[in-house]
Amino acid sequence: MSGVIGYVGNKAAKPFLLQGLNKLEYRGYDSAGICEFDDQLNVYKTKGRLSELNKIVEDKDLKGTIGIGHTAWVTHGAPTTENAEPQLSSDGSIAVVSDGIIENAQQLKSQLLEAGYSFTSESAAEVIAHLIENNYQADLLQAVQATVKVLQGSYAILVLSAKHPQEIIAAKSESPLVIGIGSNENYCASDVQALLDYTREVYILQDGECARITKDHIELFDQAGFIKDLQTEYIEWDQVQVEKDGYEHFMLKEIHEQPKGVRETIANRLDSSGQLNLAEEIPPELVKGINKIQFIACGTAYHACLYGKYLLEQFLDIPVEAEYASEYRYNRVKADQNTLLIVLSQSGETADTLGAMRVAQDKGARVLAVTNVISSTLAREADAVMLTHAGPEIAVASTKAYTAQLACLCLIAIYISQQLNGVVDQELLTGLRMIPEQIQKVLHDCEPIVQEYANRYATATDAFFLGRGIDYLSAMEGQLKLKETSYIHGEALPGGELKHGTMALIAPGVQVVGLATQKVLLDKIISNLQEVKARGGEILIIAMDQDFDYSNAGNQTIFIPEVHPLLAPMLSVVPMQLLAYYTTKAKGLDVDKPRNLVKSVTVE
Ligand code: AGP
Question: I need a labelling partner for 224 at 20 to 30 A (CA). Which of 94, 251, 427, 480 fits?
């Protein structure tokens, strides 16, 4: 995920670019850079945080009145200065900044290499810059329009050329890009919050559109290249609302960002024929010859580990274990050079998780990290890293990082099965590609139902989450979400365990969530729920099979789309996330910052 910014006007561009990047820093901080035109293109960029860039340019009297800037979470290659943006064309006359994931970047780069171009980075933006140069005749806009036609995937790009120093060309598809209208100056940025200190009159570029932006004019072109009326809008939001993209809380925003997070996590890891291409991120030698797999993590990431364990146990006969990192690190650790340790952490900074990893490493284990932050300690110390591309997760309660972790683990399980057994579960892989739009459908269908149902929880003191098989793992995540945001005591248990004690707690009005997505266990879990209902429990069922009669097993049933049973957890968690959110909201509590909790537990 990246942030782009652009300015053209009568004043020096530098202050606007730096302030705008500061507003966009939440979108990424592995690298940052700016390019201004002042007789020539001047590029200043660095890996690391924006503060590093500020040190480079703070004593430079940059007079250029047109410029572009970029801050990034690197998705291709390492966070180095060479890979930072802006990137230049081979003749140095065109500068490009970009957001998004160009799925065919490698293929386009090969074509350019064959055409004689050379590269100085692994950045997709450099591929775009060379393509624009290759397409340039005399009109920069036309060169950009010809270029974006061959890009596959998501992009938001800003282009500045020494041959056209009065204009910035903007183009987008799927990744956000906003134009701000000023007086004798105009702006563009990845999102509105970078513009609000300068203007509230904006135009949100639509997919496939391009714009030529000068200091006193904006020309808008549709996907076919025809000019369009510029119909601007006025932003009423205040700064804080804008950071939440109009959502009341970051948690709700991030719940709704899950389709994008899973889509971007999968992108690039399936080639155009839908086959896995993970060998760059997970070298085959990391997996070859292993005789045991261990998962370690904390909290929500641990629940994702349980999913990874469950999947791998379907494919492999070697032992697959999962343990809380805080327990693992002080137990007798049985790991060696033939153990693959898979470590999950959204932040990549959780103290117990890092501590446990180091214990395993001391015993020779090979470490594969799954994290959302490429520049994290975990990413640096692991032998291999597979990034989730959920984007920055601000709310303390993890939501989009969790589903992105599940998507990652699904790919990893299929990859390890392919490496060790030569078998690829094609049905699972095909089903995974559909998950982003199915999460979107669950959000659309169930949010109003859950929002109303959550009122039942406003006075609840306890809630039980029941499931069998893979549904039990989802139940564990559901109870944590409710517990950590609404302060209601949540407890997950296998449906079959009810009779062994917990049923004593079921009484009229007790809230229960029943996960019933697994056809092979449906009769069993429904029988458990009927016993709960017979004792007055109030039950929200999350199910998949719409032909089944749930009426005497629950008070409300939410259906998720029919998917491969092993993919159900990516969908069934969404209603539980929403239940936690709306219950907490109904209780008037601080959704994004629950008491006693922090986003990343960097101490033991
Ligand atoms: C999740 O909602 C919690 N905020 C917490 O359990 C979290 O998952 C845990 O602290 C692990 O964090 P990490 O993924 O950054 O390592």
Answer: 94
